Amino acid sequence: MFKKIIILGGGIAGLTLANFLKKNNFNNFRVYEKLENNLSKSTGIQLSPNAVRILDFLDSKFYLDNNFHRMNYLNIHSQPYKNFLPELESKISLQNIINDKTPYLTCDRNVLLKFLEKSLSPKDIFYNKKVTQVIKDHNIIRVKFSNGSEDYCDLLISADGIFSNSRTDNNIIKNTNFYAFRGVIKNFYSQYPTANDAINLWLANNKHLVTYFINNKNDLSFTGVIKSFDKKNVEEKNANYSNVFPTAEFRSLFFSDSKVLREILDNVQEVYRWPIFSLKKRVFYRDNQIFIGDSSHGMVPFQAQGAALAIEDAYVLYEQIIKNVTNNLGVFYFNKRNSRIRKIILRSHLNVFIFHGSNFLIIFLRTIFFKILEKSFLLKKYMFGWIFNYNPRSSSYFF
């Protein structure tokens, strides 16, 4: 068994791992977060069943809390294409493709972080601890921080995001030229009939917008993604999730003929924009240092699996640690995670192509495909079942 574990990063991946270690009475760990706190502006997050199933191991039926909101449907709105294609909607049920009826949830990201923090004490997590250097000496790792302090461990977990300060090969960070726009409309009530248990995906030429409620107070989260053809380099400092974007310009970018979407856009009061980055290759381990979450496999989030994969990573790694896999832990972890993550990243790339299609043929075929998907249980199972029904506790890792 490892004598001491340091977890770098107090986000979803790091806190999930810390929770499972503590639940199993392994208390000799420390979580270090570079920011003053891990909370941010209110923003929505999706927790697909593969993530909810794992969080349920921590706190059974946690999703009955009103701060977590259940989704039953995915509504896909294909915007009109000039005078050739009308606006079409496909309503896809998420209920009967999940084998054990684990719910699909949405919530405020801060709600999830507070849920993951509640079992941790001030002795477990420390803020304002930015890593400046990681020094390896045989089986011991020394971590130095910007305030001059340092700590030692024999297992280092890097969960500090795509711009990881503990990963030496940051040249693998790729600017995707996609930009995300996010925000939350508080207490939103539509004049049109709307389902509060549906994720709405609005597709248009070279852009898409996702909207969903995140609690029972009718707070509506929106996330727009658009491709920029400006090839200039975007610096890390512009990816801090707090850059305010002009509301009028946002409405213009995502303008739609849909009355429902126009009403949503008209109610937007605050928008934040940041560039989307990804990693050119996956990084799982280096000696007795393990990478989880975005520091390992940051990707373009077109499958709503960023948080889910981070939660999966944390649980799978926890299982290996508790099983006392000390020799070749990185190899065992790699073998458990690489294939699944690779498949989800490939699906994400496919979604990029489908969601942001710009010519008539792609949009026409996309529209037909979604209408077939709406009616076909087998096709829905093929598209989503292997993602949502993942269970790390089963021998095959699937139901």
Give a description of the structure.
With 399 residues, this protein is α+β, with helices and mostly antiparallel strands. Helix content is 31%, strand content 27%. It has 10 helices and 20 strands. It has helices at 12-23, 49-58, 109-117, 247-253, 259-266, 294-297, 306-322, 329-355, 360-375, 377-388, and strands spanning 5-8, 29-32, 44-47, 69-71, 73-78, 88-93, 104-108, 125-126, 131-137, 140-145, 150-153, 155-158, 173-185, 198-204, 207-213, 220-227, 243-245, 271-279, 285-286, 289-291. An 8-stranded mixed beta sheet has the order 6-5-14-15-16-13-18-17. The protein has a 6-stranded mixed beta sheet with strand order 8-2-1-12-20-19. Strands 3-7-4 form a 3-stranded antiparallel beta sheet. A hairpin with a 4-residue loop joins strand 10 and strand 11 (150-153). It starts with a strand and ends in an 11-residue tail after the last helix.
